[in-house]
UniProtKB/TrEMBL annotation:
Pfam families per UniProt: Flavin_Reduct (PF01613)
Region (Disordered) residue spans: 1-59
Biased composition (Low complexity): 40-55
Protein name as annotated: Flavin reductase
Residue intervals of the Flavin reductase like domain: 70-214
Gene3D superfamilies: Electron Transport, Fmn-binding Protein, Chain A
Domain of life: Bacteria
Any coiled-coil regions, as ranges: none
InterPro entries for the chain: Flavin_Rdtase-like_dom (IPR002563), NADH-dep_flavin_reductase (IPR050268), Split_barrel_FMN-bd (IPR012349)
GO molecular function: FMN binding; riboflavin reductase (NADPH) activity
UniProt entry keywords in alphabetical sequence: Oxidoreductase
Origin species: Burkholderia mallei (Pseudomonas mallei)
GO biological process terms held by the UniProt record: pyrimidine nucleobase catabolic process
Length: 226
């Protein structure tokens, strides 16, 4: 803190010499000098030039680039299913991910135009059925124009915990909607996992580059080699 004497001396100097300014601390001068030097370097000038020469893509072009990039993101194909009164609703989904283990929870992204969306928001319970690679034939009916209940004529379905479950799925997770929020065209659903069932060896049906595919091991698992 400046002493009263220093403050009085500074005011006096300012009154006597209108152009007088209090001395700039040495560290502030060094920082300003360094900033000027960085701005004048070739790298800084090149970065500024590149930024000016690289306009933001048009929204339509950016969306297309995004879709092209996402085709390189491999995901497990699942069927999200629920029941509202006497009707069953289901859809194939790849926008699914684990959220936490304490408590067990998942994220599912659902287009608000999907027939599943409204009933799911009402009943707030669903099953997530991770497809086996042998269940390829279920993708089309659960992605197409079939009526909601007609989709369940494909595959072996039965009710458990109040919602449909798929027999032979890699795994089934029974979930309660524990939160949801909108973003763009979708609702992001937080599913609190209440129960889990798994079956058979790990052989998930995957989706990559707009087409189904299967997983393959690149090298022996470490725990198998030990």
């Amino acid at each position: 803190m400046a002493s009263p004497w220093t403050e009085r001396a500074t005011r006096a100097a300012s009154d006597a010499h209108p152009a007088f300014e209090p001395p700039v601390p040495e560290r502030a001068r060094r920082d300003a000098t360094c900033a000027e030097h960085r701005a004048s370097t070739p790298n800084a000038r090149a970065s500024a030039s590149n930024a000016a020469a690289s306009p933001t893509p048009a929204p339509d072009a950016l969306a297309q680039h995004f879709k092209t990039a996402m085709r390189r993101l491999t995901s497990t194909v699942s069927i999200v299913a629920t029941r509202d009164a006497c009707a069953r609703y289901g859809m194939a989904a790849t926008a699914v991910s684990a959220l936490s283990t304490e408590p067990p929870a998942i994220l599912v992204c659902i287009n608000r135009a999907a027939t599943l969306h409204a009933p799911l928001m009402r009943v707030r319970r669903f099953s997530l059925n991770l497809l086996h690679e042998r269940q390829l034939e279920l993708i089309a009916p659960f992605s197409g124009k079939l009526d909601h209940d007609a989709r369940f004529a494909h595959g072996e379905w039965r009710d458990a915990y109040g919602v449909p479950m798929l027999a032979g799925a890699q795994a089934t997770l029974w979930c309660a909607v524990d939160g949801d929020f909108s973003y763009g065209s979708h609702t992001i659903v937080i599913g609190r996992v209440d129960s889990v069932s798994t079956a058979g060896p790990v052989a998930p049906l995957l989706w990559q580059d707009g087409a189904p595919c299967a997983a393959r091991a690149l090298a022996p698992c470490l725990h198998d080699a030990q």
